[in-house]
Amino acid sequence: MEYFTQQLINGLTLGAIYGMIAIGYTMVYGIIGMINFAHGEIFMIGAFISIIAFLLLGTLGVTWVPLALLIVLLVAMVLTPIYGWALERVAYRPLRGSPRLAALITAIGMSIFLQNYVQLLQGARVKPLQPVISGGFEFMRTENFSVVLSYLQILIIVLTVILMAVFTLLINRTSMGRAQRACEQDLGMASLVGVNVDRTISFTFVVGATLASFAGLVFLLNYGVIDFYIGFLAGIKAFTAAVLGGIGSLPGAMLGGILIGLIEAFWSAYFTVEYKDVAAYSILVLVLIFRPTGLLGKPDIEKV
Amino acid sequence: MLSISGVHTFYGKIEALRGVDLEVGEGEIVTLIGANGAGKSTLLMTVCGNPRAARGRIVFDGTPITGLPTHEIIRMGLSQAPEGRRIFPHMTVLENLQMGATISDPQYLDDDLERVYGLFPILKERQDQRGGTLSGGEQQMLAIARALMSRPRLLLLDEPSLGLAPILVKQIFAVIKEINEREKVTVFLVEQNAFHALRLAHRGYVMANGRILMTGSGAELLANEEIRAAYLEGGKQKQ
């Protein structure tokens, strides 16, 4: 039971990361019908911007943890979306209206490009970060095991919930969010009521990148090491999460993320750590075979 | 108000419009009738910039709009209830109407909602229902109401009577007349229901194979033998 609880906590933390990235996949798919395979790299760039910001703050002598965290969070969430915006502007917009395959290949190309870009600028070696937040609550103590809920995990879960609430309000209650949903349902009609479709698509990439940058920061804090390659695996896991939840569905992306996080945590705990990725990808295969619309996905509405 | 001259539009290699000339004057109801595939809807969409006219000129209120992106054309004060209604299916009726008001000042929203609810009271009852769950007639009303939310000076309507019961067709045409007379909105109406459309309109155009064949006042066209034979006799029986 103790062990189970511990894995539940770990799985939820991991799931928050996947869910945050998955939203970016699902939103972009919803609006322009392409899988942005470079989205994992946006997450990785978010993690790199975070580590650079931490190190800079360290040299500047900002060591009070809450302040440093706040600054890093803001820096990452402001700078990373510039990459998301530029990615769409430079690589995807010129291809709008071209066959899906062209966009897909471009996305993979941009993914490789961004990996190499970071590798060239930052080197290929892993980048460690001293633990910023340590300690936590211990409970359910027995002789040889106790459940630890670290302060970091609490922070991650609280911040994720806050960010999700803000994001939900943004999409459901603001006029920009309404325009975003309108574009998702009928791009042509949205432009017929005067929505600037290009700007709305840019907005979608920026929002997706903002959430991914948060995931990048959380990843950095949670694991303490990053390299230029982390976006690949996390990106594919998050993509799996988006498909599991139902691609195009926002609550589905979050749910899918949490499920993939839990599956990975429990698989690692009760079976073998080596095969945890296999577990996640098997889910992808099973979902694609038996329920291609995902858990919360709506069947395709015929668009005229 | 709207002046179309020598417009050609292509879908890929297919030439859907082959040099269309057409005028809509301020305050008029002008109708464009013709069979399926004549290019009527294409003309309305070309006015809105999607697809773009390959050749020719479209001028709205003295400003050429031929090369402008759709959302900027809409901002100039025209609005369209397009073919197939294209209600946002997962949005509520209210949200659909709010989308219609995308380009207007938010301070007018309540007034404009009252206005369109006055024209179509059923929409007020359905306010919180999703667009996709409405009946065909209600969707058509919503499409027109949505188009009116931006306070257009020129309203483009694409087959508002399509698929509706005769009583609803009458109701919709009565509202179009009211919009034109009371709110001074110019209306450009594309219809297959030639009988109703020509009776309502001040002037009409007849289109076939991407060209304008004939033009005249509504009454003239209604009386024309060829038009009676091609578009009215069959249509009238269906009434």
Greatest interface and its residue counts?
A: A-B, 20 and 27 residues
The radius of gyration of chain A is: 19 Å
Distance between the terminal alpha carbons of chain B, to the nearest Å? 33 Å
Q: CATH superfamily name of the largest domain in chain B?
A: P-loop containing nucleotide triphosphate hydrolases
Oligomer: heterodimer
Ends apart, CA distance between termini of chain A = 53 Å
The CATH architecture term of the largest domain in chain B is 3-Layer(aba) Sandwich
- Compute the number of helices of chain A: 11
Question: Biggest β-sheet of chain B: count, sense, barrel?
Answer: 6 strands, mixed
Task: Provide the gyration radius of chain B in Å.
Answer: 17 Å
Q: What is the percentage of strand-forming residues of chain A?
A: under 5%
Principal-axis shape of chain A equals globular
Topology of chain A as a string of helices (H) and strands (E): HHHHEEEHHHHEHHH
Class by alpha and beta content of chain A = mainly alpha
Give the C-level CATH assignment of the largest domain in chain B: Alpha Beta
The H-and-E topology of chain B, N to C, reads as EEEHEEHEHHHHEHEHEEHH
Average of pLDDT of chain A: 92
Largest sheet of chain A: 2 strands, antiparallel
Poorly predicted parts of chain B: 235-239
